[in-house]
Amino acid sequence: MLHLLGVNLPDKKKVPVALSYFYGIGRPLGEKICHQLSIHPECKLQELTDAQINQLGELLNKMTIEGDLKREIKNRVLHHRQIGTVTGRKFELGLPVRGQRTRTNAETASKLNRRWLAKDYSTMAVRPALEPTLTQRLMPAAMRALNWFKRI
User: Fold this and answer.
1) Are 23 and 70 in contact (CB under 8 A)?
2) Helix, strand, coil fractions of the chain, as percent rounded to 5
3) Do 7 and 40 touch, CB atoms closer than 8 A?
4) Rg of the chain in Å (alpha carbons)
5) Residues 107-141: pLDDT tens digits?
6) pLDDT value at position 122?
7) What is the pLDDT of residue 121?
8) Rounded-to-integer distance, Cα 16 and Cα 26, Å
């Protein structure tokens, strides 16, 4: 096992496949990295020389991968939530963000967007009492009228 930038890479895998063990690097990007460093895509990780491993480490150091990439994505989501965009509200509600259908088939998005709803990432500022909450804004007019009659 090769330990590179905090990730254990399997020796017996091909280099593009082994590079996909990094968060943010898939097979196509792994193949581009191999082409850039003139490493044959069919070459196994154990066959690399120390110089090639050093070049690979230097190149990966310059890229935004692993924890830096995760932090960047979380900051983007939190920014959308703080400024109150539609995308941020959809993240808050756990709905699909990129224009997918919401009437049915939203289970996958609900599962994936749960990780942004964790307590660590709740950055919604305390709203003044005069501003309605998100559920009140989304509540239909008929329901608001019923609530008004209940108060009288």
Assistant:
1) yes
2) 55, 5, 40
3) no
4) 23
5) 777 777 776 655 554 444 444 555 666 666 665 66
6) 47
7) 46
8) 8
Distances (CA, A) of 128 to 42, 82, 85, 107: 61, 15, 18, 33
Return the amino acid letter for 98: R
- Per DSSP, the residues of 92-106 read HHT--SSS---SS--
The pTM assigned to this predicted structure is 0.64
Q: What is the per-residue DSSP string for 53-115?
A: HHHHHHHHHHS--THHHHHHHHHHHHHHHHHT-HHHHHHHHT--SSS---SS--HHHHHHHGG
| Alpha-carbon span 16 to 27, nearest angstrom | 6
Q: What is the DSSP letter of 123?
A: -
Regions of the chain short of the pLDDT cut 50: 121-127
Output the pLDDT for position 104: 78
* Residue 18 buriedness (CB in 10 A; 0-12 / 13-18 / 19+): buried
Query: Can you tell me whether residue 4 is helix, strand or coil?
Result: strand
Q: CA angle, corner 134, sides to 131 and 140, nearest 5?
A: 100
Check: CB of residue 46 under 8 Å from CB of residue 12.
yes
- Report d(CA 129, CA 64) in Å as an integer: 41
The token pair at 33 is 């990295």
CB 89, CB 133: distance < 8 Å: no
